[in-house]
Design a protein that fits this description.
- This protein is an all-alpha fold and 182 residues long.
- It has 2 domains: 50 residues, Arc Repressor Mutant, subunit A (Orthogonal Bundle); 121 residues, Tetracycline Repressor, domain 2, CATH 1.10.357.
- The protein has 9 helices and no strands.
- The longest helix has 23 residues.
- It is elongated.
């Protein structure tokens, strides 16, 4: 990304802060509404984000950083810990769930972040498979899709990520990922 002039950087920060505030209040992220909340013209918003999808993706890049930190601090046998953390992030952040379930991200950086997450999950899953702790007929993209779907179901049912009902839903998925009985 090209370095922004200081006024443009301030405007971008104001736009992101206003959008994050609107999203936290479960309000629609229409670019006009974001401009009004940020106290800038809508043209200023469009100079930084040509679509709502671009804005949404930029807002959740830090979530990918959080998952990377979890993956960095996780041993080779902690697939469940990573999936549980991922589930919690998805339940708590509707934008993160929306972006990660998007078939075609709007921004190249988002595509790169999703690809990196999927590749790192695949490596973690390969280690779990080698230890006999994971079935061999599902890939990382499939597992991430499952966790995303269960998170959406939990959020739709208004379940807290750490609550017993949400944890039961996740447990069913995690148990299903275990090796099949012979």
């Amino acid at each position: 990304m090209v370095a922004l002039r200081s006024d443009a950087a301030r405007n971008r920060a104001r736009i992101l802060e206003a959008a994050r505030d609107l999203a936290n209040r479960s309000e629609t992220l229409a670019l006009n509404a974001v401009a009004q909340a940020a106290g800038v013209g809508v043209g200023t918003v469009y100079r930084h984000f040509t679509t709502v999808e671009e804005l949404e993706e930029t807002l959740v890049w830090e979530r990918f950083d959080e998952l990377a930190e979890i993956l960095d601090s996780t041993g080779p046998t902690h697939l469940e810990r990573v999936l549980t953390a991922h589930f919690a992030l998805l339940v708590e952040d509707v934008l993160f769930e929306r972006v990660t379930s998007r078939a075609n991200p709007a921004l190249e950086q988002t595509t790169a972040l999703i690809t990196e997450l999927t590749d790192r999950m695949a490596k973690l899953m390969d280690r779990a498979r080698a230890e006999g702790a994971l079935r061999d007929d599902i890939d990382a993209a499939g597992v991430l899709t499952l966790v995303c779907g269960v998170a959406r179901a939990a959020r739709t049912a208004d379940l807290a990520a750490e609550g017993p009902q949400a944890q039961l839903l996740l447990r069913v998925v995690l148990d299903g990922l275990g090796t099949r009985p012979t």
